[in-house]
Amino acid sequence: MQEVIKIEQLTKSYGRLLAVDNLSLSVKSGTVFGLLGANGAGKSTTIECILGTKKADGGQISVLGMNPHTNRKSLFEKVGVQFQETNYQEQITVGELCEVTACLYRNAVNPSDLLTRFGIADKQKSPVKDLSGGQRQRLFIVLALIPNPEVVFLDELTTGLDARARREVWQILSDLKEKGLTIFLTSHFMDEVEALCDQICILKQGKMVFYGTVSEAIKNSSCDRFEDAYLWYTDEEGKNSENF
């Protein structure tokens, strides 16, 4: 399988704080990769470096065979991104936002089809600000898929969704994976990670503490359940820290 994302010895600091410490990983085409860790572990910084929105201090990054800094325009056409914290114009409607997004890409898919698939087609004339948390989350996933990307980055994709809606989103993403989409996600829901991820990387204070499959994570820990294994690797239960 072709490598879609390859990172070699990535480092990134903010002053004296080492946010990402010598990280290396690869993501194969048509797989779901989970980047896990507590708040402040370095997940956001890693993704921003992969996308080229932040410049790494050291290391090499390749996405779809391209350098995210020198090939930003070409990469933009082939990558979809959904983040939790996203702000839009106060009165823009769901339909207008989807149309504006589609206009940015050469090979955009029909937004109406995606809105229907994610169960929010009836909200096309509604202002984005009036959507519930779960509806907004579904919309943000739709926006990430409008470019018809080869790889999509999803940040806490089912936050705010109820149990049924979460499973519906999982099924849609599994179907898209079967069609060749590569998915790079972060999540604090370990059942979601178990259901979707082919491989995972667990970060702790910027360092990789595990890299492999969910079953390998359990096997190499002292635990019988993945959620317990995750806490065992991170040793972060009950701790709070800044986001990076």
TrEMBL record:
Coiled-coil features, chain-numbered ranges: none
Record keyword Cytoplasm present: no
Pfam assignment, any one: ABC_tran
PROSITE patterns associated with the record: ABC_TRANSPORTER_1 (PS00211), ABC_TRANSPORTER_2 (PS50893)
Classification via InterPro entries: AAA+_ATPase, ABC_transporter-like_ATP-bd, ABC_transporter-like_CS, ABC_transporter_ATP-binding, P-loop_NTPase
Sequence ranges assigned to domain ABC transporter in this UniProt record: 5-230
Top-level taxon in the UniProt lineage: Bacteria
GO MF annotation, one: ATP binding
Keyword annotations: ATP-binding, Nucleotide-binding, Transport
Gene3D superfamilies (alphabetical): P-loop containing nucleotide triphosphate hydrolases
Family: Belongs to the ABC transporter superfamily.
PANTHER family the record matches: ABC TRANSPORTER ATP-BINDING PROTEIN, ABC TRANSPORTER ATP-BINDING PROTEIN NATA
Protein's UniProt name: ABC transporter ATP-binding protein
Organism name: Faecalicatena faecalis
